[in-house]
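Hi R.,

Here are the chain sequences for the assembly we discussed:
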Amino acid sequence: MSPAEVGLCLCLSLLLCVPVAAQLKNEGRQQWPVPYRRFDHRPASDSYCEALYPFCPTGDRDGRIPYMRDTDVISVYRLQTPVWEFKYGDLLGKFHIMHDAIGFSSSETGANYTMEWYELFQLGNCTFPHLRPELAAPFWCNQGAACFFDGIDDSHWSQNGTLEKIGEITGSQFNDMAQWVQDDNETGIYYETWTVHSDPGPNATAWFDSYDCSQFVHRTYRKLTQLGAKLSSRSQTNYTKIYLYSGEPTYLGNDSAIFGQPALKNLAVDIRKFYHTFRPHQSFIDLTLSLLEAYKKVVLDKSFYLYYNFEYWHLPMKPPYMQITYEEVPLP
Ligand SMILES: *[C@@H]1O[C@H](CO)[C@@H](O)[C@H](O)[C@H]1NC(C)=O
Ligand SMILES: *[C@@H]1O[C@H](CO)[C@@H](O)[C@H](O)[C@H]1NC(C)=O
Ligand SMILES: *[C@@H]1O[C@H](CO)[C@@H](O)[C@H](O)[C@H]1NC(C)=O
Ligand SMILES: *[C@@H]1O[C@H](CO)[C@@H](O)[C@H](O)[C@H]1NC(C)=O
Ligand SMILES: *[C@@H]1O[C@H](CO)[C@@H](O)[C@H](O)[C@H]1NC(C)=O
Ligand SMILES: *[C@@H]1O[C@H](CO)[C@@H](O)[C@H](O)[C@H]1NC(C)=O
Ligand SMILES: *[C@@H]1O[C@H](CO)[C@@H](O)[C@H](O)[C@H]1NC(C)=O
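And here is the predicted structure of the full complex:
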């Protein structure tokens, strides 16, 4: 089947006619989960985006990672703590909304370091766009990036979370990892909150994977293992995931395809309407209320517009629609 033949019109509940021709790979079959797009370099972020908390305030300005001597032995730590703990205590720990990072300490110099990956403009802005009257398309401040900085704040991680040594690597393994982190940081530029599956069961089809702090930690552990490191933990290693559940997603198109041509006006209006529910969020409480509102809307309309790889997809939502889990992902 050629893409053109598949490019019939798929009628959504609102009788929108949407071409589904693009994105078909492997002889017309879509690849699931949709691969996260890599870029050849990270663009500067738009000046419209404004961080409430500056990104990586104590990191090196150019993202440099110190060079370790080959003979050094570097301890690797698993770090986890509830999100925004400094504001809400361990309340969010009870919901298991956790932030993950990796710690390193050099046995030769005694210096230690923290490495994490997070949103440049906070989670709300990565999850929902801004509707700007002067722009047709919703506007996203969704960059995420790696931050490497001096020190490990032991009490921050250990008091309500986890600080556990999970292995040792050599200085040269560390340096190889540092090179990989910089490449990864340059090519993986945007944050994705949602994981989309066909159902909550173990055999579900994965439609989309999230791209967030914990995914960075998993990628780094895999890289360290490839480089020859052995990692192990005494306790279960669980991570937060924010799920959506849907039937097979439909590809809609990018900004210029949807918002740049009159033929898709109905779809453009519907996407704006969908995101209007989730107005700009000044606080975490607002974001939580938005998520509840999103849940209501999604259950009633059984419909969700997902933005992934800077393109829109339609998700025909199914029960239980949305879930936050704290599930085990074993060390590699
Ligand atoms: C993003 O979110 C934060 C708070 O979560 C807010 O202060 C900021 O102004 C938002 N908007 C943009 C465009 O970055
Ligand atoms: C990753 O990219 C961000 C954004 O450009 C930058 O601030 C940061 O220093 C980089 N981190 C590393 C480890 O290269
Ligand atoms: C841990 O949680 C308690 C109670 O919720 C809070 O008072 C304390 O500040 C938290 N610890 C750290 C290091 O943030
Ligand atoms: C990191 O270094 C600080 C300051 O020297 C020290 O207090 C802390 O215990 C170290 N943490 C780890 C996990 O090595
Ligand atoms: C998942 O798939 C495996 C292998 O096909 C099967 O043995 C198992 O029963 C399935 N589990 C569920 C919950 O469907
Ligand atoms: C948007 O998609 C069209 C094809 O549907 C493609 O030709 C165009 O290059 C894309 N634009 C961007 C900015 O990716
Ligand atoms: C960790 O994940 C496992 C399996 O995914 C689950 O059974 C367990 O209850 C989780 N632990 C916590 C503390 O939620």
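DSSP finds ten helices and 13 strands in the chain. The radius of gyration is 21 Å.

Let me know if anything looks off.

Best,
T.
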